[in-house]
Design brief:
- InterPro entries: DUF6327.
- It holds the Pfam family DUF6327.
- This is Glutaminyl-tRNA synthetase.
- The chain has about 80 residues and is an all-alpha fold.
- It has 2 helices and no strands.
Length: about 80
């Protein structure tokens, strides 16, 4: 990306370079922060906790399906007896 800014003095150039260095340093620190957060999310304990949550939801859904199936089976058996 070409910047066509015209500078009138070396002081203006120095100020612009200082701003760019600071922006680069801020971006580098943001990258480090995001990397640290990503590593924390991938810790084995965190992965285990997330996996157990998914498994728990799956087991609840499976149990609800089985219970619903049993009630429907019982109702159809009662309807046949009548």
């Amino acid at each position: 990306m070409a910047d066509s800014t015209r500078y009138r003095s070396f002081d203006e150039i120095d100020k612009r370079l200082k701003i760019l260095r600071l922006q680069r340093e801020i971006d580098r620190e943001n990258l480090k922060l995001h990397l640290a957060k990503a590593k924390a999310r991938l810790l084995p304990l965190q992965v285990f906790v997330q996996t157990t949550g998914v498994l728990k939801n799956f087991m609840i859904a499976l149990a609800a399906k089985k219970i619903t199936h049993l009630f429907r089976k019982r109702r159809s058996a009662e309807a046949l007896e009548e």
